[in-house]
Structure prediction request, 144 residues.
Amino acid sequence: MGRAFQVLSRRDKTVRGEIKSWEPGFVLCMKASFNGPSVTLARGDDGIRMIKSSGRPRADMTVTFRSIDAAFLVLSGRIGVAQAYAQHRFLLSGSIFDCMTLVHCVDVIEGYLFPRFIAGKILKRFPQKECSTVFVYCQALLGG
Prediction:
């Protein structure tokens, strides 16, 4: 998810438009549980980039899933972000406005990462793709 966010922040105008509202240097931390694995992303001039986090990074927004199982359900496409929110599967620390832009970005990213038969179950509407899914996967896997 983090690498796809990186790629699409440079390639997809919807994702670029959403993250424009974030201040340069805005830091987002997504944690799989309170003590579980995490990914830290920062907004740079050219889009989102993953950053190494030693210890507890200063984050403008933190999304913490209540358990690794909850993170797996969302990140594997079994449930959508809206359903996870309704079921209280994650906690948010930060601005609700920024979180709504993140949710919109995640919807677009899931539209690229998941096949239509999976994405159709978790998204209200399928996003318009501006590049191929294969391109996004290749760039994400190669660190682009």
Remarks:
- Residues 96-113 form the longest helix (18 residues).
